[in-house]
């Protein structure tokens, strides 16, 4: 599987870019999966639901399945957060895995940047960032794309991973 990441500070446009890239790249006939890093606790089920009750009772893993989707929830219960590499082994094979976050991992990435956030660019200090997608023109030694030009960004990502 090919892997490419999207990184950036909060409110930089990462999730919107990920969503548009998934749509654009799958429309071209490629299979895509995503991995999203969360810096906080989250729930995919809710209090009162059977799967929630199973987890609250102490289950290490809860597999929820229907004919429409399957969700595997694993409670860490104090264990270390799994590495991106370990998580990738759990995915079914696809052409491309787009990773949102995991900015400190060694895979190739594009940085999403919005000037209004007033955050510094990550790219100048991180050689894994191959390009920047920004809502303002930037002078960098890397390719800079308009943050909303999904077609050009998708072309770049696919070329970078060899698809």
Write structural notes for this entry.
By secondary structure, the protein is of the alpha/beta class. The protein has one domain: P-loop containing nucleotide triphosphate hydrolases (Rossmann fold), CATH 3.40.50. Helix content is 24%, strand content 25%. A hairpin with a 4-residue loop joins strand 3 and strand 4. Helix 1 packs across helix 4. The longest helix is centred in the N-terminal third of the chain and has 14 residues. The termini are close together.
Structure, briefly:
The protein is an alpha/beta fold and 163 residues long. It has four helices and eight strands; from the N terminus they run E-H-E-H-E-E-H-E-E-E-E-H. The chain has helices spanning 14-27, 50-57, 84-88, 150-161; strands at residues 2-7, 32-36, 61-65, 70-74, 96-100, 109-113, 129-134, 144-146.
Q: Residue share in helices?
A: 10-25%
Count of DSSP H/I helices: 4
CATH class: Alpha Beta
Question: Strand pairing plus helix content: what structural class?
Answer: alpha/beta
Mean pLDDT rating: 94
**Distance N terminus to C terminus?**
11 Å
What's the count of strands? 8
Report the major sheet: 6 strands, parallel
Order of helices and strands: EHEHEEHEEEEH
Domain count = 1
Strands side by side in the biggest sheet: 2-5-1-6-7-8
Radius of gyration: 18 Å
List strands and helices in order, with pairings.
Layout: E1 2-7, H1 14-27, E2 32-36, H2 50-57, E3 61-65, E4 70-74, H3 84-88, E5 96-100, E6 109-113, E7 129-134, E8 144-146, H4 150-161
Parallel strand pairs: 1-5, 1-6, 2-5, 6-7, 7-8
Antiparallel strand pairs: 3-4
């Amino acid at each position: 599987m090919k892997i490419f990441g999207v990184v950036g500070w909060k409110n930089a446009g990462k999730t919107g870019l990920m969503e548009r890239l998934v749509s654009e790249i799958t429309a071209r006939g490629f299979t895509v999966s995503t991995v999203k890093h969360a810096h906080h606790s989250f729930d995919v089920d809710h209090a009162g639901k059977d799967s929630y009750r199973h987890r609250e009772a102490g289950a290490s893993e809860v597999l929820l399945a229907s004919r429409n989707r399957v969700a595997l929830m694993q409670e860490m219960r104090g264990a270390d957060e799994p590495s991106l590499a370990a998580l990738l082994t759990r995915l079914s094979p696809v052409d491309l895995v787009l990773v949102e976050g995991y900015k400190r991992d060694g895979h190739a990435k594009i940085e999403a940047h919005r000037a209004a956030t007033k955050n510094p660019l990550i790219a100048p200090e991180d050689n894994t960032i191959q390009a920047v997608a920004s809502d303002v023109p930037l002078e960098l030694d890397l390719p800079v794309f308009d943050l909303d030009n999904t077609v050009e960004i998708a072309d770049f990502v696919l070329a970078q991973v060899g698809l």
